[in-house]
Amino acid sequence: MKMTMRLTGSNRPIARLVLATTLLTTMLQITRASSAQAAASVDEFKAAYAVAEAANTQAGALRNQWTATASTLADAKKAADAGNFDAAVALSKEAEALAKASIFQGTSEKQAWKAQEIR
Length: 119
Hints:
about 120 residues; mainly alpha
């Protein structure tokens, strides 16, 4: 939808002022929203990293930590230090998935040997 404004006479300066004020207000709102998103990304990273570290610690308790998990956590930390929180959150979630997979592997292999038959 295209909006046009046609003003004549002395109303033009007022219309320009209203338009400029509206644009300025919109730009300020966008800037504030972007700043809030950046802060949320830091918090998201911290939360995701903490969950991934906890899962990796649990895998270590089962004596089944994967080296890929540790390197992915290190990469997430490097990305966060560089200010790339989107990548840091994604890497933290990947590290969490790896840690959970290693936990699953460790617990399933503890039980799987019982099902094997010696022939």
